[in-house]
Amino acid sequence: MLANIKDILTKAKAENYCVPALGIGNEINFMACLQAAEEKRSPVIMLFMYGKNDIMRFGKWAREQAAQASVPVSIILDHGAEYEHAIWAIHAGFTDIMVDRSKLPFEENMAQVKELTKIAHACGMGVEAELGHVAMGDESVFTRPDEAKRFVEETGVDALAVAIGTAHGAYKDTPKLQFELLEELRDTVPVPLVLHGGSGTGDENLKKACSMGINKLNVAYELYTGAIDSYKNYKESLPENFRSWAPYDLYEKLGEGAKAVAAHHMDLCGSTGKA
Ligand SMILES: [Zn+2]
């Protein structure tokens, strides 16, 4: 069933678990993540990137699939960077938008997020924003609890992505998370907290973060590598010069790899059985 992040994350915060938000690249890994959620009886959040996906076409397709699912499914436009991206997401039938203005100065970030939140809420959608900055490398700017509280109160967002030491993409070493800061944010900020850059952060780190107030965990890179590894293993198992339907199994193997990573994160986040 369709659900927005407000519905999904309010329950997660109240019962102290986390819900995985999974990076979607195409129909194959969307269906793989959906199957994992249905088998695990877990709510799930599907992340769509503007530019990577044709959001008008794909958004409408994803909405139909989500509506038929037996578990709560949110489809969110991840890191919408322009005003237009949010408007397109509304037209495409997304349940939520993530408005990323984290590179802007605090006041400007707040003003732009506030405007889009008003629009999204009028459409029955949830909104996530980001404060501090989760970088593509090591240059994250940590979130300040006092600012985070004011930001949430003024903008009315439903969830807040915080910077506590993770980064997007792949790491050279396992990152060091700021757990004391996370605890302080959890006690200060009135809405569910989100952690971006879950891939490669380490299961122990993530489990701990999920038990300390992170209610939405974004994972993308690991889904892709899981899919590719699954396909590689399959390809290596084939005899040389094979003649069969094997090429068609490619898609299935990619899906199996992504599904396993998705299912693993549902267990890790504690969302298994919470649908
Ligand atoms: Zn992100």
TrEMBL record:
Source taxon at top rank: Bacteria
InterPro entries referenced in this protein's UniProt entry, alphabetically: Aldolase_TIM, Class_II_FBP_aldolase, FBA_II
Reported cofactor(s): Zn(2+)
One Pfam family of this chain: F_bP_aldolase
SUPFAM superfamilies: Aldolase
Name of the protein this chain belongs to: Class II fructose-bisphosphate aldolase
